[in-house]
C-alpha cells in the first residue's frame, strides 16, 4: 500500500511512527505486520511506501520475508525499513493445519518477556539485513489508538504510550486535504458494501431490460453512445448534478465493454479524477453481479493512483468475490502486492486507454 502523504514524521521518535500508521494506511490495522520503507539515508531520510500484511502463521515467516523482498522491496529498493507489529493474534482458521493447538498460534508474550512475535521480527529482520536493508526500528503495539502500549523489540526500556493518531501531524495534513482515516479495515469495507439483495436484484432486471432497449435503438455497435454516457455522468457528477438510477445503470452497462472501461481508466489521470472516483464509489454499492467487477476495478484503479491502497484493496476484494478471474482485477491485485508505484501504473493506464481508443476508432465507433 502506497503512503498517501509523507511529511512531519520523525524517524527518531518511535511513538510518532506508530501513531502515523493509520493515516498512512487509511485505517487502523489489527493483528498485522506493518512495514514503512525509508529512503534517502543518511542525508535526507524520507518515507516511501507503507505495507501491511496479516500476522503470518509460525511456519510462514521465512516465506513472508522472501515474498516481501521479491515484490515490494525489490520494486522500491529502500535503504531501510521500520517494522511495526500490531496485536498478537494470527488467523486461527488459516493456521489450523500448522497449529493444531490454538495457543501455539497466539502467544501473547515470549518466554523471555519480549513483545509478541519476536521470532517473526528476527526472521524478517535477518532476511532484510542479508539483502542489504537495515531495520531502523522494530516496534510492537497492542493496538494503534491513543494511550495504547508500545515497546521496542531491542529493549524493554524503550516503551511508552501511543499518542492520539488523530492528532498527529500527518493526520492533520491528510484531514486538511480531505482524506478520511477509518477506525478499522472493516469500516473501510463498509464504504464499498453492497446495498440490499432486493435492490441488487431489481437493478439486475432493469439492466437486462435497458440492454434490450439499447440494442433496439443503436444496434450491436453502440460504443460511441456508451462513451458519451460514461463521460457525461462524470461531468455531471463534477458539476454536482443528480444522476437518475437509469443514468447509473447506463454507465454500468457501458463499462462492461472492456474497451469503454479501459478508456474510462483515463478519467483517473485528468481534472475529473475526483468526480470519476465518486461515481465509481456510488456504482460499487449499487451494482449487481456481474457488472460490479468492472466498476469496482475502476474504483480500485482510481484509489491506487492517488495512493490509497486501503480503498483499492477492499474494492478488489469485491471484484475477487464476484469474478475472481476478472483480468483487470487480477492485474491490479498483482500491482498492489508488488508495490508498483502509482506513477508507473499511470503510464500503463494511459497506454491501455490509448489502445482502447484505437480499437474503437478502427471499428468506426469513436
Q: Can you describe what's shown?
A:
The chain is of the alpha+beta class and 366 residues long. The chain is 53% helix and 11% strand. It has a six-stranded mixed sheet with strand order 2-1-3-4-5-6, sandwiched between helices. The longest helix is centred in the middle third of the chain and has 22 residues, at 197-218. The model has no long low-confidence stretch (mean pLDDT 88).
Please specify the SSE layout and strand pairing.
Layout: H1 14-25, E1 32-39, E2 46-54, H2 61-70, H3 72-76, E3 80-86, H4 92-95, H5 118-130, E4 134-141, E5 149-152, E6 159-161, H6 169-176, H7 185-191, H8 197-218, H9 223-239, H10 245-255, H11 258-265, H12 273-286, H13 291-305, H14 309-322, H15 327-338, H16 342-362
Parallel strand pairs: 3-4
Antiparallel strand pairs: 1-2, 1-3, 4-5, 5-6
Strand share of the residues? 5-15%
SS-based structural class? alpha+beta
Task: Name the helicity range.
Answer: 40-55%
Order of strands across the main sheet = 2-1-3-4-5-6
Average pLDDT: 88
N-to-C CA distance: 36 Å
Along the chain, the helix and strand elements come as HEEHHEHHEEEHHHHHHHHHHH
What is the number of strand segments? 6
Shape: elongated
Q: Which sheet architecture does the biggest sheet show? A: 6 strands, mixed
Amino acid at each position: 500500500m502506497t503512503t498517501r502523504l509523507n511529511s512531519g514524521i520523525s524517524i527518531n521518535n518511535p511513538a510518532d511512527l506508530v501513531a502515523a500508521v493509520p493515516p498512512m494506511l487509511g485505517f487502523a490495522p489489527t493483528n498485522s505486520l506493518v512495514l514503512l520503507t525509508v529512503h534517502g539515508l543518511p542525508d535526507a531520510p524520507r518515507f516511501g511506501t507503507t505495507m501491511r500484511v496479516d500476522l503470518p502463521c509460525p511456519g510462514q515467516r521465512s516465506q513472508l520475508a522472501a515474498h516481501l523482498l521479491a515484490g515490494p522491496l525489490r520494486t522500491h529498493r529502500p535503504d531501510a525499513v521500520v517494522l511495526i507489529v500490531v496485536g498478537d493474534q494470527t488467523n486461527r482458521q488459516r493456521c489450523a493445519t500448522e497449529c493444531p493447538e490454538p495457543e501455539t498460534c497466539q502467544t501473547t508474550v515470549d518466554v523471555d518477556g519480549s513483545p509478541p512475535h519476536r521470532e517473526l521480527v528476527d526472521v524478517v529482520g535477518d532476511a532484510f539485513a542479508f539483502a542489504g536493508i537495515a531495520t531502523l526500528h522494530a516496534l510492537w503495539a497492542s493496538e494503534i489508538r491513543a494511550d495504547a502500549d508500545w515497546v521496542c523489540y531491542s529493549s524493554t526500556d524503550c516503551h511508552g504510550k501511543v499518542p492520539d493518531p488523530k492528532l498527529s501531524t500527518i493526520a492533520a495534513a491528510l484531514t486538511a486535504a480531505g482524506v478520511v482515516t477509518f477506525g478499522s479495515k472493516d469500516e473501510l469495507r463498509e464504504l464499498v458494501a453492497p446495498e440490499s439483495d432486493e435492490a441488487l436484484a431489481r437493478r439486475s432486471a432493469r439492466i437486462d431490460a435497458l440492454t434490450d432497449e439499447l440494442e433496439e435503438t443503436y444496434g450491436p455497435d453502440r460504443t460511441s453512445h456508451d462513451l458519451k454516457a460514461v463521460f457525461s455522468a462524470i461531468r455531471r457528477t463534477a458539476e454536482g448534478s443528480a444522476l437518475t438510477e437509469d443514468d447509473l445503470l447506463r454507465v454500468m452497462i457501458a463499462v462492461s465493454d472492456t474497451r469503454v472501461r479501459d478508456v474510462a481508466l483515463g478519467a483517473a489521470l485528468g481534472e475529473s479524477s475526483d468526480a470519476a472516483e465518486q461515481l465509481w464509489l456510488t456504482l460499487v454499492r449499487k451494482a449487481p453481479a456481474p457488472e460490479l467487477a468492472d466498476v469496482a476495478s475502476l474504483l480500485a484503479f482510481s484509489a491506487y493512483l492517488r495512493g490509497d491502497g486501503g480503498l483499492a484493496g477492499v474494492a478488489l476484494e469485491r471484484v475477487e468475490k464476484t469474478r475472481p478471474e476478472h483480468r483487470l482485477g487480477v492485474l491490479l491485485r498483482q500491482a498492489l502486492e508488488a508495490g508498483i508505484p502509482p506513477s508507473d501504473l499511470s503510464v500503463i493506464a494511459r497506454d491501455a486507454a490509448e489502445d482502447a481508443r484505437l480499437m474503437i476508432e478502427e471499428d468506426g465507433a469513436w
